[in-house]
Amino acid sequence: MTMGVQFIRLYPDVVKLALLGMAFLVFSGFASWKDRQRFKRTRLDSVGFMPWPTVSILSLFTALVFFAFAVHDWTSG
Q1: Which of 3, 21, 47, 74 is placed for a possible disulfide with 67 were both Cys, Cβ 3.0 to 4.6 Å?
Q2: Taking the CB of residue 70, how many other CB atoms lie within 10 A of it?
Q3: What is the Cβ-side half-sphere exposure of residue 76, based on CA atoms within 13 angstroms?
Q4: What's the domain range around 61?
Q5: 63 contacts: CB under 8 Å, gap ≥ 6
């Protein structure tokens, strides 16, 4: 049995929390990219309505919380 499959069988909750953290981390990167695009726009009139900096910060914080829960669950047994 490989090490990855054995880890998933021993700690399924840790894997779920870590995957959720990774999803929110990817979403935070997407929001940062969209904010960068909005900042470098050529038409100053087309601002948009989505608050990308706020979305980026909140999703990054959520990812860190999920990672913290995963580490806590992993170390507590």
Answers
A1: 21
A2: 21
A3: 8
A4: 11-42+49-76
A5: 21, 22, 23, 24, 25, 28
